[in-house]
Amino acid sequence: MDAPGTVARGDLLIRDDAIAALGAGVPAALAGARPDAEFDAAGAFVVPGLVHGHLHLCQTLFRGLAEHDDLLRWLRERIWPLEAAHTTASVAASARLGLAELIAGGVTCINDMGTVRHTEAIGEALEASGIRAVFGKALMDQGAGVPAGLLESPRAAMDESLVLARRFHGAGAGRLGVSLAPRFILSCSEALWAEVAATARERGMLVHTHLAESPTEAREVTQAVATSAARYFAERDVLGPGFVGAHGVWLDDDELALLARADAALVHCPGSNLKLGSGLAHVGAWRRAGIRCGLGSDGAACNNRLDGFHEMSLAASLSRVVGRRDPRPGSPPPLAARDVLALATCDGARALGLGDSVGVLAPGRQADIAVVDARGPHMGPAPERDPYVALVHAARPSDVRLTVVAGRVLYRDGAWTTLDPAAVGATARTELTGLLRRAEEAGVA
Ligand SMILES: [Zn+2]
């Protein structure tokens, strides 16, 4: 995924946490020495690890529990009450279950939005898992249907975000970053957005939020603030190079221009947009406007997979449908498979401000790598003829043989090095039982 689009057969050498050499450069870099460890990647593609631009690890326990609703009903009737029933232990179990799935699927970096409480449990799970991540607690201080347990004052919301930042920003040898994560316009007051904008500027923190996701949400936003989401953010100085907005399905061209001018980033979540019936984002138009773009799965409650390959396949195919609906002259062409792999790797890293360190296989970059076996029948007969098409349209998480973050093997041929999948699964089931009991006692579930 370097700028010239190099595809080469050869070796890759990792030293400490970084890529030391590639291909012809490997013998010279080894200088006659033998590597401490080797992995035979014959018959596989070695690619930059996948970057998941938008996710809620706290919702992994809710997988299959919130079906058949559109966004606002899904949030108000299912997700928020379930989030309010979380404890530190259930959030930790939810995060670890999601991380086991992500790491085995070649994901090396995520951008997570937690729930309002217990976000330190997500930070601890991220740190122990070895994955690279930006994460933040969801900020909510108002809104119809928000349970009391998820509401807090703007001051308390910001103070806890800063406590998390002091503890986790730069933790895990620099793998972790902490963001400000105001949930969306309908759950955050004007005062809270002002605090977010000022603090993000002062401390250089990412602002991770949702915008323009569904038509009913867009309508309620217009009723509440008399303008659209991107305009609201632009007027309040929320947009900037650290802004990462998920979904963006219903942004118009003027709003895309506002985002581009501010150098804000958007994250495409096609699986979630389809399953919640939210709509089809026009990612070609985002790219044409010059916006940095990434790809994400959103949480397991609205997808229900945390699967970068599924999202890539959807993004590539949906761009053909969306492009055809845009009758204007000069409408952007469908995304090529390489463009889509870029969304999930180098472009996704740039969307999170990590473009200089990950997303590309090149000497000096962080060794965040996935090895994807190409020998399965579903990849045949000749995946090497177009590796981008093979990876985007045919590969699956189960093809991933090796996941490496900062030079450390996190997953190898069915075995996790930082997570015990049997224990993770058992704890998740136990915690789900407790969570549903608490939700029932609170009158939901
Ligand atoms: Zn989301």
Kindly report the spatial arrangement of strands forming the biggest sheet: 3-14-15-16-17
Overall structural class, as computed from helix and strand content, comes to alpha/beta
Bound molecules: zinc ion
CATH class of the domain at 48-351: Alpha Beta
Q: How many H/I helical runs?
A: 17
Mean pLDDT: 96
What oligomeric state is this?
single chain
Unreliable runs: none
CATH homologous superfamily assignment of the domain at 48-351: Metal-dependent hydrolases
CATH architecture of the domain at 48-351: Alpha-Beta Barrel
The name of the CATH topology of the domain at 48-351 is TIM Barrel
Q: Can you put this structure into words, describing what you see?
A:
- By secondary structure, this protein is α/β, with parallel strands linked by helices.
- It has a domain at 48-351: Metal-dependent hydrolases (TIM Barrel).
- The chain is built from 17 helices and 17 strands.
- The radius of gyration is 21 Å and the shape is globular.
- The mean pLDDT is 96.
- Bound molecules: zinc ion.
Offer a few descriptive terms.
binds zinc ion; 17 helices; four-stranded parallel β-sheet; globular; hydrolase; TIM Barrel; single chain; 41% helix; alpha/beta; 445 residues; five-stranded antiparallel β-sheet; Metal_Hydrolase
SSE blueprint and pairings:
Layout: E1 12-15, E2 18-22, H1 25-30, E3 44-48, E4 50-55, H2 71-84, H3 88-104, E5 107-113, H4 119-129, E6 132-136, E7 138-139, H5 154-168, H6 171-174, E8 176-178, E9 181-182, H7 190-203, E10 207-211, H8 215-225, H9 229-235, E11 243-247, H10 253-261, E12 265-268, H11 270-275, H12 283-289, E13 292-295, H13 308-325, H14 337-344, H15 346-351, E14 369-373, H16 387-394, E15 400-405, E16 408-412, E17 415-416, H17 421-441
Parallel strand pairs: 4-5, 5-6, 6-8, 7-9, 10-11, 11-12, 12-13
Antiparallel strand pairs: 1-2, 3-14, 14-15, 15-16, 16-17
Helix pairs in contact: 3-4, 3-17, 5-7, 13-14, 13-16, 14-16
The chain binds zinc ion.
Domain Amidohydrolase-related: 45-409
Pfam families: Amidohydro_1
Protein name: N-ethylammeline chlorohydrolase
